[in-house]
Amino acid sequence: MSRLNIILLIIIAAIAATASSALFIVNETQQALVIQFGEPKRTVDQPGLKFKLPFIQDVIFFEKRVLSFIPDEGEEAILKDQKRLKVDTYARFKIVDPLRFYQSVRNEIEARKQLDTIVDSALREELGLRGLKEILSEQRNSITKNIRDQVNIKARTLGMEII
Asked: What is the tens place of the pLDDT at every residue in 6-33?
């Protein structure tokens, strides 16, 4: 091979490497956050082939689908009438604001830890205002809705929505 062919191959390889680091694919089940030197630059929520600055910008992907949160153990709450009640909780949530999500919790693991605290707090607060008869009556649905609404207000500040 001549020197010209070797130089040409090196140039083609460099162009290919640069082009491959400038492109990324967002699946329809994902949303992405483009980061440059640790600073968020833009969010991408439409699927397809996207561009970024090669070697300077990175991409972090987040789920667009509904995620489940189920704590390991049930929570024990003390009711208004001083009775103890063990309650199992769960939540379904979506990441609705990837930028706020990244800035507040960074990833799903930390989001689940925060959500655990938020759900536990809202549960204890709402059940502390109710007696056992209220919880076992038709008011149960409104109590559940109140807990969900309280959790949703705090979850929105983290870039999530409780479904």
From this structure: 999 999 999 999 988 999 999 999 999 9
- Residue 59 tokens, joined: 């991409």
- Tokens 């968020």 belong to 40
- Dihedral over Cα of 99, 105, 107, 112: its sign: negative
Residue-wise pLDDT tens digits, 82-107: 999 999 999 999 999 999 999 999 99
Q: Which amino acid is at 97?
A: D
**Burial state string for 46-76 with b = 16 or more CB within 10 A and e = fewer than 16:** eeeebebeeeebbeebbebeebebeeeeebe
Of 48, 17, 16, residue with least CA distance to 32:
48
**What are the beta bridge partners of residue 93?**
67, 162
43, β-bridge pairs: 33
By CB neighbour count within 10 A (0-12 exposed, 13-18 middle, 19+ buried), where does 156 fall? middle
